Amino acid sequence: MIQKGIESMPDLFVARVDDLKEGQRKIVESGKSTIGVLRAKGKVYAYHNECPHQGGPVCEGLMIHRVEEDIGPDKTYRGMRYTDDLHIVCPWHGWEFNIETGRCAGDGRHAMRKYKVIERNDEIYVVV
């Protein structure tokens, strides 16, 4: 397909649906870039594997639930708890990003670049 003089790239095959289980990820190459594809909370997400902070391989980081301080009504500390928000943590400097939105937990002005994911014929593709 030709669009405004530029040839469109085909969707990038990632894996068969059954080969990417909950909590797993796959890093795929697209030209000179890498894309992290993650299955979390029953959905598949794809992000450019470069942290907006300093370019670290963010999609290769730890996936954890966001930790909150539990402060009582009387302002006393009651410990920590995990929330339902799942984050990925850049292995270089610890920046955390929400898996569903790609937004930085500490500063919502920063976000990972998100790609559209398509599941068809029991296969997962990323639109590049």
Structure description:
The protein has 128 residues and is an all-beta fold. The chain has a single domain, classed as Rieske [2Fe-2S] iron-sulphur domain (Rieske Iron-sulfur Protein). It is built from no helices and eleven strands. The chain has a six-stranded antiparallel β-sheet, with no helix packed on it.
Number of domains: 1
- What is the 3D form? elongated
Radius of gyration: 17 Å
Q: Which CATH architecture is right? A: 3-layer Sandwich
Sequence of strands across the biggest β-sheet = 3-11-10-6-5-4
The strand count comes to 11
Give unreliable regions as ranges.
1-6
Bin the strand percentage: over 45%
Secondary structure class reads: mainly beta
Biggest sheet descriptor: 6 strands, antiparallel
Quaternary state of this entry equals single chain
What is the end-to-end distance?
A: 14 Å
CATH class: Mainly Beta
CATH topology: Rieske Iron-sulfur Protein
Assign a percent range to the helix content.
under 10%
Strand/helix succession = EEEEEEEEEEE
Q: Going by CATH, what is the homologous superfamily?
A: Rieske [2Fe-2S] iron-sulphur domain
Overall mean confidence score, pLDDT = 91
Tally of helical segments:
0
